[in-house]
Structures are given as structure tokens and as C-alpha cells.
């Protein structure tokens, strides 16, 4: 990513510059293992290549003017994988933050992390804290890293926070409305995703943003995450721009002026 990217935020060429770019794109980066196995490589090679694609996706999102990019990097259920794969993924996250934080910061990217940090190794939790703290005043793309993230667990944490506030007498149970729940989630202050992309052809949420994706558009590219290049990202945005979002009303096309 070059330092000039933020200054040159332009709409993607795929849509001729007039249609709306999604403000928040959330990606389930799936298929690293299958990408590697299909090449006779160990699964870990797919994860390594996946990090390269993360850099490219962040850069592209910034370039086309997406404001929030959420990347599902490790789910609460991914602990079920063999210990060596889990260890490799933890190491990759550390490496990514160590190597890329300065660059992200230089590009005015603000990092947010969602997920349960309490269960993470202290060194990993500290690095995630550092990434957020170092970039908190940046005003460019917000990169939301979903790490040790599970939407059900996030909702449970939010419910507990609200219940504790009720127990302390700060709010009444009747004050709990949609906005109060949204504000108690890890994603507080982040607009809901407009577009959720899942690579690898799987068509499921796997415990990702269950609350926030209530009115998201979904795109399921067939390729694996390590194949998700700028063209594939552009096609997903073009798919989004051809959708009609109605939000329960009578709606208008995504690409038309409001
Ligand atoms: C996505 O790729 C990365 C993580 C879940 C961490 P996978 O590792 O799930 O790859 P497949 O789905 O097994 O091919
Ligand atoms: C979802 O992928 C989690 C991430 C991409 C981090 P999985 O590969 O873990 O999902 P399932 O097991 O196929 O549903
Ligand atoms: Mg998978």
C-alpha cells in the first residue's frame, strides 16, 4: 500500500464512477486450506498466501473509497482445528501486526478489533490493543479485524453488559432497544455492513455478524480467498451495485442517486 492511496480514493472502474460504493464491506475469508491442498501444498501455505491477499484487499478497499472493511480472521469455533494449525494462525496474526502496523498507520488506516480478547494469549491480546491504540485517531479506512470472533458470543457479551447496567439501576429494562443493543456490541459505532462477501463458494455465515448483517447484501464468489484479487473484489462490488435494497420498504436500486 502506498502512502498516497488515501489521497486518491476513487470509485472502482467497474461501475463507471456513478453508483454507490458500499460503505462497509465485511468478508469471510474462506478457502485457504483448499487453495493450498489443490496445489499439493500444506494448508498453512494457504494461510500465508491469505495474508498477502489481506494486504491487497485493504489497499483496494482504501483505493475505491470503502470506509469500513471487516475481515473474519479467526472464529470462536476455529479453536477446534488441530493445535499446530491454530498455532500457525496465531503466529500469522502476530506477524501481520508487527510487519504491517506501521504501514497501515502511515496510510491513515484505523484498526478496530472485534471478538473476545479475554481468551487470547497475553502477547496476542497486547498486540491487538497496540494496533487499536496506535491508529485510533486515524481518519481513513477503518479496518475491523474479527479475531476470536463469534457473533453469538458477542451478543451474549452485549446482553450481559446491558443486564449489568439494569442491575446497577443505570437504565430500565424498557430502555433496551435496537440502538442500545447495537451500542453494546463489539461493533459499537461501526455502521452495519452493506455487503458481506464469502469466498470459496460456501454459502453460510459461520457465526459472523449475525445481528449486524440483518440487511446486508450477500455475494459468494466461487474462488478461494487466496484467489480473491482486485478483479474479484471489483466484481463483488459490481454485483452489490446491481442489487435493489428495500429495507422492508419499496426501495430503489443501489446504484441510483437517493
Ligand atoms: C479460511 O480458510 C481461514 C480461516 C478459517 C482461519 P480455511 O482454513 O477455512 O480454508 P478451508 O475452508 O478449509 O479451505
Ligand atoms: C469461517 O470459516 C471463519 C473464518 C473465515 C475466519 P470456516 O472455514 O471456519 O467456516 P466453516 O467451518 O466452513 O463453517
Ligand atoms: Mg473454511
TrEMBL record:
The active site is at residues 30, 78. One of its GO terms (molecular function) is ditrans,polycis-undecaprenyl-diphosphate synthase [(2E,6E)-farnesyl-diphosphate specific] activity. Transmembrane segments: none annotated. Substrate binds at residues 31-35, 43, 47, 75-77, 79, 81, 198, 204-206. One of its GO terms (biological process) is polyprenol biosynthetic process. Its cofactor is Mg(2+). The keyword Transcription does not apply. Mg(2+) binds at residues 30, 217. GO terms for cellular component: cytosol. CDD domains: Cis_IPPS. Binds 2 magnesium ions per subunit. Its EC number is 2.5.1.-. Keywords: Magnesium, Metal-binding, Transferase. Homodimer. Catalyzes the condensation of isopentenyl diphosphate (IPP) with allylic pyrophosphates generating different type of terpenoids. Belongs to the UPP synthase family. This is Isoprenyl transferase. It comes from Methyloraptor flagellatus. The lineage of its organism: Bacteria, Pseudomonadati, Pseudomonadota, Alphaproteobacteria, Hyphomicrobiales.
Amino acid at each position: 500500500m502506498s502512502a498516497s492511496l488515501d489521497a486518491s480514493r476513487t470509485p472502482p472502474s467497474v461501475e463507471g464512477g456513478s453508483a454507490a460504493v458500499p460503505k462497509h464491506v465485511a468478508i469471510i475469508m474462506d478457502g485457504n486450506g483448499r487453495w493450498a491442498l489443490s496445489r499439493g501444498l500444506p494448508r498453512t501455505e494457504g494461510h500465508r498466501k491469505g495474508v498477502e491477499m489481506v494486504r491487497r484487499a485493504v489497499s483496494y478497499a482504501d483505493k475505491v473509497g470503502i470506509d469500513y472493511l471487516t475481515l473474519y480472521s479467526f472464529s470462536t469455533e476455529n479453536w477446534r482445528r488441530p493445535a499446530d494449525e491454530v498455532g500457525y494462525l496465531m503466529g500469522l496474526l502476530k506477524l501481520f501486526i508487527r510487519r504491517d502496523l506501521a504501514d497501515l498507520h502511515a496510510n491513515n488506516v484505523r484498526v478496530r478489533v472485534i471478538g473476545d480478547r479475554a481468551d487470547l494469549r497475553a502477547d496476542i491480546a497486547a498486540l491487538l490493543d497496540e494496533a487499536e491504540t496506535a491508529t485510533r485517531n486515524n481518519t481513513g479506512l477503518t479496518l475491523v479485524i474479527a479475531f476470536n470472533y463469534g457473533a453469538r458470543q458477542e451478543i451474549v457479551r452485549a446482553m450481559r453488559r446491558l443486564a449489568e447496567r439494569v442491575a446497577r439501576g443505570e437504565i430500565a429494562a424498557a430502555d433496551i432497544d435496537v440502538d442500545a443493543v447495537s451500542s453494546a456490541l463489539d461493533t459499537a459505532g461501526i455502521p452495519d455492513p452493506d455487503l458481506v462477501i464469502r469466498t470459496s463458494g460456501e454459502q453460510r455465515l459461520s457465526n459472523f455478524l449475525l445481528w449486524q448483517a440483518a440487511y446486508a447484501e450477500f455475494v459468494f464468489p466461487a474462488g478461494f480467498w487466496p484467489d480473491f484479487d482486485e478483479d474479484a473484489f471489483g466484481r463483488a462490488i459490481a454485483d452489490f451495485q446491481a442489487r435493489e435494497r428495500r429495507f422492508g420498504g419499496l426501495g430503489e436500486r443501489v446504484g441510483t442517486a437517493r
